[in-house]
Design brief:
The protein has 14 helices and 13 strands. It is an alpha/beta fold. It has 2 domains: 147 residues, Aspartate Aminotransferase, domain 1, CATH 3.90.1150; 240 residues, Aspartate Aminotransferase, domain 2 (3-Layer(aba) Sandwich). The strands form 3 sheets. It has a 7-stranded mixed β-sheet with strand order 2-8-7-6-5-3-4, with helices on both faces. α1 runs parallel beside α13, α4 packs across α8 and α12 runs parallel beside α14.
Length: 404
């Protein structure tokens, strides 16, 4: 009899260190009585951001209708609200039949890749990426091929490099905009070139736009589906970030563009959605109110708004630190911060994150956990209030000063 039960070989290429060993160690420290400032996850509710009251009321008022299973694609009012949003953004030809509601975007990413990939197929994924994308590609028999979004280019991809990576097994390209972890917001010309490459090469465009309204200063969000009309585009978004409703677990994906070419793909998605019966129903009743109501996120990301001001504190503290550097985040709720080169011989990003946790009780995500070829960055969320952010950077500077 064997001593241990072997896990699936598919897990060998899967990592999700945002909730990995460091997070487990932070939990151990908390059980021992230490107060840990956890900046590893963008979870607005933990930092005092409330879901809009109208969304909560919409869910409560419809609880009686939320007890049975719903259609595998989701309740009609939620899907129709997503269609209206897409139409308002200039995305034509979409109906409720092309919308799937899922238990967060995470589930829909998995279902989409499962419906698309055969063993050995390749998917172009940005580096840095949100590691769920790489994990979901691997778990569904595919291979992620990384296109660079380099700090020297403000984390914006190079379309020529993307083109050079396409091979006979390439099926899709993932575009995360606004970007997690870097905070980059892609310019229209870059997006237009990516859409053109995808159309030329018959690649499915997988547009992760969960932070779509979370942009700052002069940055402007451009829905990729408005540019990817000639091919198949799948757009992902949800309630978690913009509407501060992570725990509702409500996301959606929308098929657009060449829907005739996507017919079998959509049918495969519907089959997989049916196998899990349906997504969480109570939270779906908040979608129509969320998308059709007052967009409170706009006040939060404008000067004077809480998200804007907290981002500014991070920018100011990194700028004033002799040990840190950063490309200014123009979107989302993260900062991707670079350690000064003098620390390269002392520790990499994982060693730094480990020591910061053990010595200063601050939990961050190492940059290399976002599938980068370099190991001198770390990611924090910009969600904590101003006082807590200043406290975090005081501790970071104290630790780095010991090794300078």
């Amino acid at each position: 009899m064997t001593d241990t039960i072997a896990t699936s070989a598919a897990l060998h290429d899967v990592k999700y260190e945002i909730r990995g060993q460091l997070a487990n160690r932070a939990y151990e420290l908390e059980k021992r009585g230490y107060e840990v400032i956890s900046l590893n996850i963008g979870n607005p509710g933990l930092f005092g951001f409330r879901t809009p009251e109208t969304m909560r009321l919409a869910m409560i008022e419809n609880l009686g209708q939320a007890e049975p299973y719903c259609h595998q694609k989701g309740i009609f009012p939620a899907r129709e609200a997503v269609v209206m949003q897409q139409q308002d953004r200039g995305i034509e030809g979409v109906s409720a039949d092309e919308v799937f509601i899922g238990n967060g975007v995470s589930e829909l990413i998995d279902l989409t890749l499962r419906a698309l990939l055969n063993n050995g197929d390749e998917v172009l994924v940005p580096s840095p990426d949100y590691p769920l994308w790489s994990a979901a590609v691997a778990l569904n028999g595919g291979t992620p091929r990384y296109y660079d979004c380099l700090p020297k280019n403000r984390f914006v991809p190079d379309p020529d490099q993307i083109r050079s990576l396409i091979g006979p097994k390439t099926r899709a390209i993932v575009v995360i905009n606004p970007n997690n972890p870097s905070g980059a917001v892609y310019d229209p010309e870059t997006l237009r070139e990516i859409a053109a490459i995808a159309a030329e090469q018959d690649l499915v465009v997988l547009a992760d736009e969960i932070y779509d309204q979370m942009v700052y200063d002069e940055a402007r969000f451009v829905p990729l589906a408005t540019l990817a009309r000639d091919g198949v585009c799948v757009t992902f978004s949800g309630l978690s970030k913009v509407y501060r409703a992570c725990g509702y677990r409500v996301g959606w994906c929308v098929f657009s563009g060449n829907l005739d070419a996507a017919h079998d793909f959509i049918h495969g998605m519907e089959l997989l959605a049916a196998l899990r019966l349906c997504a969480n129903v109570p939270g779906q009743w908040a979608v129509q109110t969320a998308l059709g109501g007052f967009q409170s996120i706009r006040d939060l990301v404008q000067p004077g708004g809480r998200l804007y001001q907290q981002r500014q504190v991070v920018i100011d503290r990194v700028s004033s630190s002799p040990y840190l550097d950063m490309c200014k985040p123009m979107g989302a709720m993260y900062a991707f911060i670079k350690l000064d080169e003098r620390f390269a011989a002392r520790f990499d990003d994982r060693g730094f994150a480990q020591e910061l946790l053990e010595e200063k009780h601050v939990l961050v995500a190492p940059g290399s956990s976002f599938n980068t070829p370099y190991s001198d960055h770390f990611r924090i969320t910009t969600l904590p209030d101003v006082d807590m952010l200043n406290q975090v950077f005081d501790r970071v500077d104290e630790l780095l000063a010991q090794h300078a």
